[in-house]
Specification:
6-stranded parallel β-sheet; globular; about 15% strand; single chain; about 350 residues; Rossmann fold; 7-stranded parallel β-sheet; alpha/beta
């Protein structure tokens, strides 16, 4: 059936975080556009429980003798998809399928290979150029990623199509304020960041800035303080794992959100914070200038003094904080999943 679209649902059942969550939104966008003339099917290697946040994600289970992992993706899926247009949203795609669309989110394994296991970095660096050459369309999530992928030989820049992620999913999550009480936090009384021990996430710069901040720093999610190369100063709160509802509450009640990453293919968290009306300070690096636009204050990523100045101004200048909130909301309003789904369809429809 030449007009049939099949979505690679291997990501289902693996926890919808990061790339997998964006895949769920993109898959839903395609499934919502299905018609009798252009059917859209979601195939997965195993059954998954219904997800109320993604009611359209009801996959057809296609078991295979190669298991539910890479063997299923590389060997079982291409046979099941046959001549359909096969759309893959999680960086990888089967090499044996001749009509694949693949979304490669970033070039992180090229830019910061030490933040990945040696096997993972080597596999991605070997597979991505091959997958891109075999694909009929290569997608990515920012112009920064498009340029990075081209610079590292994954594909030609002119052949890579940008589809910006949506960010308004955070507004669908009711806030769970219990996280504030549990950690003794006061609404409007802290600076928020997200935890990660990966070097390119650059949390060490914020830890270096923390003693000079006028408000305490809260590190949500990620590992505890012992995982960081820089010894965290006193007064920094590490929440450990937080639910989506708790993260929404922290976004809502933070005086400011800080995002110091040295590189991102897109960078969902700063725009999620903008959606929640929180002023954002982000690193002037990676895709953040492109994605945040005028909605955030951008600072040199590895300069603690610049982070202190930008965050303390937000804490001490209500008019500045209010203006930044308004600019952030205006920028975030453009980056919706409706807009992302429409752009995705514009890129894919000509292939049908």
């Amino acid at each position: 059936m030449p007009h049939e679209i099949i979505v690679n649902g291997k990501f289902l059942g693996a926890g919808l975080n990061g790339v997998h969550r964006t895949a769920a939104h993109y898959a839903s966008a395609l499934l919502s556009r299905a018609t009798p003339e252009t059917p859209v099917r979601l195939l997965a290697p195993r059954a998954v429980p219904p997800d109320p946040d993604f009611p359209l994600l009801r996959p057809e289970v296609v078991p295979g003798r190669f298991g539910p992992g890479q063997g299923w993706e590389m060997l079982t899926l291409p046979r099941a998809a046959r001549a359909a247009l096969l759309v893959n949203f999680c960086n990888l795609a089967p090499l044996l399928h001749s009509r694949s669309v693949v979304m490669i989110h970033d070039a992180q394994t090229y830019l910061y290979p030490d933040d990945y296991t040696g096997r993972q970095a080597m596999a991605y660096r070997a597979l991505l150029p091959w997958i891109a050459r075999r694909a009929v369309r290569v997608l990515t999530v920012s112009d920064f990623s498009r340029r990075s992928l081209a610079q590292h030989g994954v594909g030609r820049a002119d052949d890579i199509h940008v589809v910006h992620n949506g960010t308004d999913h955070i507004l669908d999550t009711p806030p769970d304020g219990s996280v504030l009480a549990r950690h003794g936090l006061t609404p409007g009384g802290f600076v928020l960041t997200l935890g990660s021990a990966k070097g390119y996430k650059n949390i060490g710069t914020l830890l270096a800035a923390a003693p000079d901040l006028s408000l305490p720093l809260v590190v949500a999610g990620g590992p505890g303080p012992d995982a960081y190369a820089a010894r965290p100063p006193p007064g920094v709160t590490f929440t450990g794992f937080v639910t989506d509802g708790e993260l929404r509450a922290l976004y809502d009640d933070a005086a400011a959100f800080a995002f110091p990453s040295l590189t991102e293919g897109f960078g969902l968290p700063p725009v999620e914070a903008m959606q929640c009306g929180t002023p954002v300070v982000a690193a002037d690096a990676g895709a953040m200038p492109e994605v945040c636009g005028e909605g955030a204050v951008l600072v040199p990523p590895t300069d603690p003094a610049a982070w202190v100045a930008a965050l303390n101004r937000i804490a001490g200048d209500a008019d500045h904080a209010r203006a930044l909130t308004e600019r952030g909301r205006a920028r975030a309003a453009i980056l919706t999943w409706d807009a992302a789904g429409e752009r995705l369809w514009q890129v894919i429809a000509p292939l049908l």
